[in-house]
Amino acid sequence: MNASFYLPTRVFFGERALIENKKSLALGKHAFIVTGKHSAIASGALADVTAVLGEFGISYTVFDKIQENPPLLTCFEGGKLAAKVGADFVIGIGGGSPLDASKAIAAFAANQGIEPMDIYDEAKRKNPTLPLIAIPTTAGTGSEVNYYSVLTLPDGERKKTFKASDAWPRVAFVDPRYTYSLSHGSTVSTALDAFAHALESYLSPKSTVFSEQAALFAAKELWDVLSQAPAQFTPEMREQLIAAATAAGMAISVTGTGFPHPMGYSITMLDGIPHGKACAVFAGDYIEYNEKTELGKARIAAFAAHIGTTPKLMKALLPGLANVDLSFTEEEIDRRVKLICGAGNYTNSPYVLSPDEMYEIYRAHFLKK
Ligand code: NAP
Ligand code: FE
Predict the structure, then answer these.
(1) pLDDT digits 0-9 by tens, 332-363
(2) Dist. CA 196 → ligand 2 center (Å)
């Protein structure tokens, strides 16, 4: 058996993770803090960060312009500002959007003079990204422990992932308390995203014994909480969810994701469906198509048995929790499927969908009757 596992991120997990390990926040002299409008404040994470920076005499600039599904151009603007203020490290605080954006900003800040699309060209990014710290406030993407930065292209309709071996956060502070302020709906959606990561990673041909263990741990914790459909999330549940999301982030750092991700991007970008729910719409299809292969069927059965359920229940519960109600004309479906046809990760599972099958799936879910 051959396998490797690489995780250059030091993860501090648990209540007060940042306060208890505050020295690890001091990566430079001026921090560029990347956030959305409200989550960094609502979660309490920004107050903890600025208190520690103040204690160490580290100056900082807060850039709170990151919208959901972060635009490449906002990251470009952030990178310019980070360089202008002389930042020598970056701290991302928030859900996947600010965390992903902080990776791109750290890359742009270190490579002044490149054009926005040059971020995807390794030859043009001559300097290593600035050191990065990630502090998640959602239990979903696992961005704190991987090197992916999912960005919205300037057309506003498509996403493209920036990946770089030096875009891993150096440190992640994962404190379940930072997710307490997340609404019920966003908690379900982000947990569905983490579940999609676990399942899609487990089925990926690139999975290894190490990524599999992370995926199975994540799936069990997530299923335990989600299958109860709780009206409220207790602190214990929130801890389970964020431990699982971080583990699932480690799993996809090895394997990447599968076709529910690109298929979901179109209804996120054009119809405003949050990322996790958009992926979960296609969870039943993902299971059903992969069950057509011998390998896929065996893997799905093993995954379901490990988490104490059946493929049939997963097919019902996951899209049910997403509860997405959209309907489109043939032209609207055509536009959405065309946007995803070029994505690489739809080939990352035992069953590889054809473009015709993508149309079939979209029609089955959404075609106006
Ligand atoms: P998000 O887009 O970062 O945030 C969604 C919403 O939740 C925002 O309104 C945000 O507010 C709010 N929010 C976040 N934390 C909160 C808190 N503790 N209390 C109150 N409100 C809070 O959500 P996400 O699902 O975590 O991230 C989705 C993005 O990550 C997508 O762009 C997706 O493509 C990407 N993604 C990346 C990876 C990866 O591996 N890197 C994997 C999957 C998905 P603010 O606007 O104030 O921040
Ligand atoms: Fe995701």
Answers:
(1) 999 999 998 777 667 899 999 998 999 999 99
(2) 7
Predicted pLDDT at 345: 67
Closest ligand, as measured to the CA of 185:
1
> Whose CA is closest to 150, among 279, 60, 42, 290?
279
Distance of alpha carbon 358 from alpha carbon 174, whole angstroms: 36
Residue 32 to residue 85: CA distance in whole angstroms: 8
Residues with CB under 5 A from ligand 2 (ion): 193
Nearest to 27 by CA among 152, 153, 129: 129
Q: How far apart are CA 331 and CA 151, in angstroms?
A: 26
d(CA 90, CA 133): 6
Which residues lie below 8 Å from residue 52, measured CB to CB, with a gap of 6+? Answer: 18, 19, 22, 25
Q: Is the pLDDT of residue 303 over 80?
A: yes
pTM passes above 0.85:
yes
| Residue located nearest, by CA, to atom 38 of ligand 1 | 141
Give CB contacts under 8 A, 24+ apart, made by 309-314: 309/223, 309/227, 311/287, 313/227, 314/199, 314/283, 314/284, 314/287
Model confidence pLDDT, tens digit, residues 152-171: 999 998 999 999 999 999 99
150 pocket-lining for ligand 1 (C-beta < 6 Å): yes
Closest-CA residue to 14 (of 250, 215, 238, 222): 238
List the residue whose alpha carbon is closest to atom 1 of ligand 1.
95
Q: How far is CA 30 from CA 20, 86, 129, 296, 365, in A?
A: 21, 7, 15, 49, 49
Report the chain's mean pLDDT, rounded to a whole number.
96
Q: Which of 7, 48, 68 to mutate to test the pocket of ligand 1 (most atoms within 8 A of CB)?
A: 68
Pocket residue to mutate for ligand 1, from 34, 48, 138, most atoms within 8 A of Cβ: 138
Residues 56-114 pLDDT 10s:
999 999 999 999 999 999 999 999 999 999 999 999 999 999 999 999 999 999 999 99
